[in-house]
Design brief:
This protein is mainly beta. The protein has a single domain, classed as Hypothetical Protein Pfu-838710-001 (Beta Barrel). Helices cover 10% and strands 48% of the residues. The protein contains two helices and nine strands, in the order βββββαββββα. A hairpin with a 3-residue loop joins strand 2 and strand 3.
Length: 158
Amino acid sequence: MAIEIEHKFLLANSDWRKQISHSVKYRQGYLSSQASSSIRVRISDDHAWLNIKSASPGTNRHEYEYEIPLIDAEEIINKLCRKPLIEKTRHFVVDDGHTWEIDEFEGKNKGLIVAEIELAETGLHFSKPHWLGQEVTHDLRYYNNSLSLHPYSEWSEN
């Protein structure tokens, strides 16, 4: 069974931008969202994946991902996925031996930037760079699935 162990954070400042090693654009859409799981299709450059993930909030979630033909992914996103799509640039930042994935959202979620770190095991210590802000791992609003249903631009506190 595949387990994703991940922590999510908001950003305190933009100092992380000086540490970007590379960036990748993603477009993804959701086919299904239930109380127990979500199913999405993600496209990046000339690759595409089908992803099934448990919907429970927290650091540990079941996740399964399979590469699929790009032409199929385009058709699924355009014809079957709910809108709005999740559009983002993922910036990869290495800090203290850990790779941070910093998602800078576009489209209906423009203005939202979330940093994520995936760990090899639960409870593994990691240092928090000075550019990290509040942890939002347990706040469902920051999960991509939730952002496709309730985009950041529609949040009342924005």
